[in-house]
Design goal:
By secondary structure, this protein is mainly alpha-helical. Its main location: nucleus.
Length: about 180
C-alpha cells in the first residue's frame, strides 16, 4: 500500500497512513484507511456536538477548550472501560485456581469431565404415565347382555381404581437431541 499516490491523498489520510506506519503496519487494504477516517470523523463530530451542548448549558455563545475537554472526558468515562488493576486480576486468578478441575474420563477421543460436570446432558425430561395392560379381556355387547347389570356396575369401579393407581405415578424419560442432517 505504501507509495500509491501519496501526493493526491488528503491531509487526514496522510496522518492515518503515518500512524499505521509508526505502529509497524506496512501492508493493509485500501479500505482500512477509509474506515479509520470514518471512525475519526464520527468521533470528532460526537465530541464537538457534546461540547456544544455543554457550552449551551453554561450559557456561553461559543465552545471553549473546557467544553471540549469535558466532552472528551465524558466519552472516555462512558464509552471506554479500563481493565482492572493487575493485583485484582492476580487475586481473582488465585481464588479461581484454588478449585481443582474435575476429573476427566479416560478413553478414546477427546477427554471429557464426568457427565454431571458437563453441559452435554439432556436439559429436559418428559413425564410419561405408565400404562398397565388389563388382565381381563374387554367386554363386548354380547357379554353385557349375559351378565347381571347390578353385578357388572359394582365390578367396574373396582377395575377403574386399580387401573388408575399405577398411572398416577409417572415415569420420567430423558434423551439427548440428535443433530439434524443438513
Amino acid at each position: 500500500m505504501a507509495g500509491e499516490g501519496e501526493e493526491d491523498l488528503p491531509r487526514d489520510a496522510k496522518i492515518v497512513k503515518s500512524l499505521l506506519k509508526s505502529m509497524g503496519v506496512e501492508d493493509y487494504e485500501p479500505r482500512v484507511m477509509h474506515q479509520f477516517l470514518e471512525l475519526w470523523y464520527r468521533y470528532v463530530v460526537e465530541v464537538l456536538t457534546d461540547a456544544q451542548v455543554y457550552s449551551e448549558h453554561a450559557s456561553k455563545s461559543t465552545i471553549d477548550c473546557d467544553d471540549v475537554k469535558l466532552a472528551i472526558q465524558s466519552k472516555v468515562n462512558f464509552s471506554f472501560s479500563q481493565p482492572p488493576p493487575r493485583e485484582v486480576l492476580l487475586e481473582l486468578a488465585a481464588s479461581r485456581n484454588k478449585i481443582p478441575l474435575p476429573k476427566s474420563i479416560a478413553g478414546p477421543g477427546v477427554p471429557l469431565p464426568p457427565e454431571q460436570d458437563t453441559l452435554l446432558s439432556p436439559n429436559y425430561q418428559l413425564v410419561i404415565p405408565k400404562k398397565t395392560a388389563s388382565t381381563e379381556p374387554e367386554e363386548t355387547e354380547d357379554d353385557e347382555e349375559m351378565t347381571d347389570p347390578a353385578q357388572s356396575s359394582q365390578e367396574q369401579p373396582q377395575q377403574q381404581q386399580t387401573s388408575e393407581l399405577p398411572s398416577q405415578t409417572p415415569q420420567r424419560v430423558s434423551f439427548p437431541l440428535s443433530r439434524r442432517p443438513k
